[in-house]
Structures are given as C-alpha cells and as structure tokens.
C-alpha cells in the first residue's frame, strides 16, 4: 500500500496522468494519503470513475480533499460525493433548522455509505508542479463519462436501496433513527408536505367515464416530476364504432411538492388541489378500459401507470396495450429521419390540431394517428442483415442502406409478468450480432432527450446513459438519434457473448433511474 501512496507519475504529462487515473486500482477514501497532493478521481458505487479534481491548494492533502471534503462536505457545494448521494434516505437540506436533527442522521448514513461503497484514485505530484494547470489539461483529455460529475454535469443518483439497507444494518440504527431517515426520504420525494387526510380524500370525485361501445382507446398521462408514478393528469380518447372520439380527462393529485415539469405542461400543485388521487382514479379506468385495446404514443404512459400502481401497492391493470408510434412507423416510413414519428412531427404531417402536453389533447392526437393510419398503405420491409454501421457514416446514406422501417419486435410474454420499469424488448437479428449493436427505435422515447445525440461523435449528446449489462462495470454512452442505437458499442459484443445471444433472442430494456437502464437477454 505504501508504494501506491508514494507512486510518482513517469512525467508531468497530462496524458500520462490520465492513464494512471484510468488504470490504477481504486481504493477506499479512508486510505487516501495524508501527506501528499496531486490529481485525483472519484469512483462511484458502480465502480465507474466519474470526477477528476486536484488538491491545488497547498493546505490540502488527498485525504483531506477526498475523505473529508468530498465525502462529508456540504451537499450544495463542490463536494461531489456528498452532492451525488444526497438522495432518498441519505438526503439532507443544508442549514434547515426544522429538519436538522433528521438531516444529521441522514448525513451520518450517507457518510458511511460513501466510505463503504465509493472509492478514489490519485496521482501524487511534487509541490512545485502547477497542479491546477495540469488538472485542466487532464480534464480536457478525459472521456465524457469520466468527468460526468465535473461542473455538476449529472443529477444525484437514485438511492441504491439494497446497499443502503446493508449500511443501515452495519450502523445498527434504532427505531428513532430509522424513523428519521424515512422522514428524510419522504421530504426528498416531497410527500411529507401534502395533506392526505381522509376528509380531503372523501371530497375528491372522479369524473364519470363516457358510456360505450368503443372500438379502442388512447391514453396519455402527464407527470409532476421525473418519478414516473407522479401522475398529475390522465386523458383517455374513446373511439366509437363510427370513428368519432369522445375525450375523458381528469387531474390527479400526485401528493408531491416536487413540481419539475410545470414549465412543460402548465399544471401546478394548486391546480390539482382537491383532485382525486391515482388510487381513486384507477378503479374507474379499470372498469372502462378492461378488454379494449389501449394505445399509448411511446412506452412512457404504460410505465407511468405501472409506477403509480406500485407506489400504492396495487397490481398493474392487464390492459391490451398497443403503441401508436409503431402504427405511425408502419404507415408513414418516409418520416424516418425526416421529423420522426413523435406527436409534434405527426401533427404537421397529418394536419392535426391539438395542444401538446395536455393529457386529453395528446390522447386524442394518438387516437387520430391510429385512425389516419387505418387508411394508409402499410409496407414493412424486413431488416437487411450484416450492415456495418460506422460511427461517422452519413445518417441519410445509412438509413437508405437498410431500407424502410423494420418489423417491430413482438412483445415478449415475459413483459406481462416482469415487475419494474420495463420499457420494451428488441428482437436480435444476425446483423445485430455480427455488428455488436441493437436498435432502440421502439423504446427511444423512454430516454431523456438530452442523452440523444446526432449521427456522429462530434454531435454527441450532452448527457450519457449508464447501461448496466452484467459486466464488471456498466457502460456509459449517449444514444445516436439517427441510427437509434447506443453510440459506444464496445461492450455489446461481450454482452452477447456472456449471454450466448442468438438470432431471435430479445434484449429486455429496463429504466432504473433518470439516466440509467438495465439490459438483459430473454431467450425463446
């Protein structure tokens, strides 16, 4: 261990220092040297290097900067371990006297979690070196995912629940401490401040649903924040046998004070005051939608219903879900690469009239897409296999080389029983296996827009997705929005090999955080 502390770089070259940071074995923060300084990196609980910094101040050592500052410092400053794990039961609102007692316990839990599951790497440098200059040179050379935390480039992680549970066991928290961190979790999700008394619930009423018969329905939801279960509005377009549409819509009280998407849909906490809860709305929907085809425009709406059901310990309804995006892709393949098949693009192409991001309006628009498609010529060409996809290939030429839309993957039977945020299944072709990629066409809407980039590396997205695939470390990549696949694909071949992937197998894709997903192979 002493040799690790005393290790000196072969030179003060930024490339050499970056190489050492990327290749040296990460160590617990507690063993960071107390008597030297230089450039260091912070490693998250998944084993990924995510931040590069330096002890540029002569008063700071590696131990002081990493173990004391980053691990135990303020959550709102540049102390990145504290900032990135200020989440769930480890959350604390700094300088809030009303929650200080609970917050101190949450911080104690967070400090212990970081010490146990996060690590660091470091490269000692002589004091006479211009460490601050070298730090900037190293950062300029570093891959995007390695400096994802720098300059607050990532949101805090979702709470790693299983790992936090283990730390709580080690700390031997008593009932009072467990209650404190549960209150902090409620405050983090904004549920503590919303009254949920039985009297207010009794006053809420659900609008009556239109009487049928109906040929099919289309459903859309809006959410208060990036928790998919925070549904604040539901709209259902009911299509009658004569193809006329009657729309049903209701606000839903998501019982949260975290309103992040008001600027998108205009819905506020005040507007949903007195509205029914999801638990009250669900029985009405179950009775109306049972046995009828229900369209969503992307996989988001079904995943939101699933998340909202899970939040109140109710089973997900067994509705017959279909996707109007898939219908649109089959009906109008010419829109691929030319505006796409989102509602905004289809609005222009089909001359639809609706207000986007209103659940009732969007549901009606999805229904109209299906009605228009019923009169369109649907031509589906099988995917051409063995197409080599280069990172810098012209997007239009690449699309022309594979023809029009491919046959969408059939829904796996497992999708009806797997719990969690499963957003889709992708059927593998020989071309996928030969070229180490798989397409994300039918699940693209499940990913945040700022992690979807252009057709080459120069047009990479601002954010990356963390892909947990079963390897030693997750993959960190943005999505090529032109080719509809993960841009960095070095891990995909190993993923296929580990799982003995064959033609016809399916890749199951689960969303596990705001910018994370898990992929696995389902065999048939």
Key traits:
single chain; 524 residues; alpha+beta; Nucleotidyltransferase, domain 5; At1g16640 B3 domain; 3 domains; five-stranded mixed beta sheet; 18 helices; 33% helix; globular
Describe this protein's structure:
The protein is an alpha+beta fold and about 525 residues long. The protein folds into three domains: about 1-170, no CATH class; about 210-375, Ribonuclease H-like superfamily/Ribonuclease H (Nucleotidyltransferase, domain 5, 2-Layer Sandwich); about 395-520, DNA-binding pseudobarrel domain (At1g16640 B3 domain), CATH 2.40.330. The chain has helices spanning about 1-5, 15-25, 60-70, 80-85, 100-115, 130-140, 160-170, 175-190, 200-205, 260-265, 280-290, 300-310, 325-330, 345-350, 360-375, 395-400, 430-435, 490-500, and strands at about 25-30, 35-45, 50-55, 120-125, 215-225, 230-240, 245-250, 295, 320-325, 420-425, 450-455, 465-470, 475, 480, 485, 505-515, 515-520. The strands form four sheets. The chain has a five-stranded mixed beta sheet. A five-stranded mixed beta sheet has the order 10-16-17-12-13. The longest helix has 18 residues, at about 100-115.
């Amino acid at each position: 261990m002493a040799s690790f502390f005393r290790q000196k770089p072969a030179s003060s070259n930024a490339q050499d220092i970056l190489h050492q940071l990327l290749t040296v074995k990460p160590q617990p923060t507690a063993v960071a040297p107390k008597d030297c300084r230089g450039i260091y990196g912070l490693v998250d609980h998944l084993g990924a290097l995510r931040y590069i910094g330096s002890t540029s101040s002569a008063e700071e050592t590696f131990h002081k900067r990493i173990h004391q500052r980053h691990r135990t410092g303020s959550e709102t400053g540049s102390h990145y371990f504290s900032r990135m794990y200020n989440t769930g039961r480890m959350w604390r609102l700094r300088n809030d006297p009303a929650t200080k007692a609970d917050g101190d316990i949450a911080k104690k839990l967070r400090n212990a979690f970081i010490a146990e599951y996060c690590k660091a790497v470091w490269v000692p440098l002589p004091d006479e070196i211009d460490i601050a200059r070298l730090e900037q040179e190293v950062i300029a050379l570093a891959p995007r995912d390695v400096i994802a935390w720098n300059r607050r480039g990532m949101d805090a992680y979702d709470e790693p629940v299983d790992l936090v549970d283990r730390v709580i066991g080690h700390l031997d928290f008593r009932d009072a401490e467990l209650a404190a961190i549960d209150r902090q979790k409620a405050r983090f999700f904004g549920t503590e401040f919303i009254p949920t008394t039985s009297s207010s619930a009794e006053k809420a009423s659900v609008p009556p649903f239109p009487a049928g018969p109906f040929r099919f329905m289309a459903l859309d939801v809006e959410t208060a924040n990036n928790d998919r279960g925070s549904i604040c509005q539901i709209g259902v377009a009911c299509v009658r046998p004569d193809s006329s549409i009657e729309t049903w819509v209701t606000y839903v009280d998501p019982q949260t004070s975290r309103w992040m998407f008001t600027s998108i849909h205009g819905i506020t906490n005040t507007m949903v005051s007195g509205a029914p809860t999801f638990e009250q709305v669900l029985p009405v929907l179950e009775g109306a939608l049972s046995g009828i085809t229900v369209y969503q425009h992307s996989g988001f709406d079904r995943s939101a219903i699933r998340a909202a059901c899970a939040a109140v310990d109710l089973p997900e309804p067994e509705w017959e879900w279909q996707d109007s995006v898939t219908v649109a892709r089959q009906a109008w393949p010419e829109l691929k690469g030319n505006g796409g098949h989102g509602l905004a693009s289809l609005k222009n192409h089909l001359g639809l009239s609706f207000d986007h991001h209103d659940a009732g309006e969007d549901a009606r628009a999805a229904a109209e897409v299906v009605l228009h498609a019923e009169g369109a010529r649907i031509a589906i060409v099988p995917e051409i296999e063995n197409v080599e996809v280069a990172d810098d290939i012209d997007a239009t030429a690449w699309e022309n080389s594979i023809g029009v839309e491919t046959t969408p993957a059939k829904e796996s039977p497992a999708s009806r029983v797997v719990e969690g945020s499963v957003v889709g299944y992708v059927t593998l072709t020989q071309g996928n296996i030969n070229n180490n990629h798989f397409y994300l066409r039918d699940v693209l809407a499940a990913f945040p827009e700022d992690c979807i980039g252009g057709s080459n590396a120069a047009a990479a997205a601002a954010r990356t997705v963390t892909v947990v695939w079963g390897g030693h470390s997750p993959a960190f990549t943005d999505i090529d929005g032109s080719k509809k696949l993960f841009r960095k694909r070095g891990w995909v071949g190993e993923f296929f090999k580990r799982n003995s992937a064959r033609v016809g197998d399916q890749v199951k894709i689960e969303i596990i955080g705001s910018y994370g997903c898990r992929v696995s192979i389902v065999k048939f």
